[in-house]
Design a protein that fits this description.
Layout: H1 4-13, E1 18-19, H2 20-30, H3 39-51, E2 55-61, E3 67-73, H4 75-100
Antiparallel strand pairs: 1-3, 2-3
Helix pairs in contact: 1-2
Length: about 110
Amino acid sequence: MQGTLDLLILRTLIFGPRHGQGIARDIHTDSSEELLVDHGSLYPALQRLEARGLIAAEWGVSSNNRKARFYRLTPRGKKALTNELSQWKRMVAAIGRVLNARKTKPV
């Protein structure tokens, strides 16, 4: 669903700064290896979130001693995460109601 990756990225960054590969790995791990984020989707999403002011990035060195951009959640991003998480929960509940609805056959 549209916006899902953005929400997952924001949620991942609530725990602290991560580089792109770390974000993808956390999403994969936290989803019990059900969700796999490819670079072709991840980096445009990171650029989009940065352009909206929801995350900020700075260069640093990764744990394997490589230069990497580390992304962090901004105050504006924290507020957006709260709003988007609330909307997501409402959407999931609504979809659940539709999927679980029991209707009789029309006459």
